Amino acid sequence: SKPVLWDDNASIEAKRGTRRTLVRALETILRLIHPMMPFISEEIWQRIAPHAGKPVEGESIMSQAWPQAEADRIDEQAIRDIEWLKGIIIAIRNVRGELNLSPAKPLEVFLQNGAAGDAERLEANRLFLSKLARLESITFLAAGDEAPMSAIQRVGELEVLVPMAGLIDKEAELKRIGKEHEKQQKVITGLENKLGNEKFVGRAPADVVEKERAKLADAQAELALLESQRVKIEAL
């Protein structure tokens, strides 16, 4: 687990390293945004730069070098992990919005299906998820485990489940699912018409056609999930 400032178990040294990284990142960002936000970036930079190891007496952010990316320090796996983390947090926030749940209400969340390595990603990022998504608990269901009746959001192949017992207005949720079902059906019809058009399939680049087919498969999976949810809620 990576150290964060609000982790009570993190050491003083780990928190100091986190602060140093944050300050250096902020100083770099200020140099990037200076052309678009010249005055506020200068004001903040004058205060931040000394803590980032840059002497500023008599200096201006205008005279600083433009940041250059160091390709050998780009961590593609870290980028994928952060995008995975963001996807789950957004999914949980979407459920909160759909069910009109307070952002402050701790939630019980389950994950199921997904890609290889997702369970390990959960363990590596459990602290972040629990804090940023305001969770009471988060559990990865094993294959064959029975999931409670839940509001479900998909993040790629992964399904994010928020149990709805005691949280939902049954009729309102069925209405919401009906609207989303209609929306997905329109998407599917549009994609099927496009892919059924010989001119499009024959003239479009192969990768473009493949992307449209992937969109269709994703929309069909989403529709099947909505239909499954509707059946379960109607049975409540």
Output the helix-strand order.
Answer: HHHEHEEEHHH
The helix-and-strand class reads: alpha+beta
State Rg.
Answer: 23 Å
Number of helices: 7
Could you say which overall geometry the principal axes of the C-alpha atoms support?
globular
Sheet with most strands? 4 strands, mixed
- The strand count comes to 4
Strand coverage percent: 5-15%
What is the helix content?
Answer: 55-70%
Taking pLDDT < 50 over at least 5 consecutive residues as the criterion, the unreliable ranges are none
Give the terminus-to-terminus CA distance.
39 Å
Mean pLDDT: 89
- Our count of domains comes out at 3
Order the strands across the largest sheet as they lie in space.
Answer: 2-1-4-3
Describe this structure in words.
This protein is an alpha+beta fold and 236 residues long. It has 3 domains: 1-60, no CATH class; 76-163; 170-234, Helix Hairpins (Orthogonal Bundle), CATH 1.10.287. It has helices at residues 12-33, 38-48, 76-99, 118-132, 170-195, 198-203, 206-234, and strands at 107-113, 135-140, 150-155, 158-163. A 4-stranded mixed sheet has the order 2-1-4-3, sandwiched between helices.
Which descriptors would you attach to this protein?
4 strands, 236 residues, 4-stranded mixed beta sheet, alpha+beta, 7 helices, Helix Hairpins
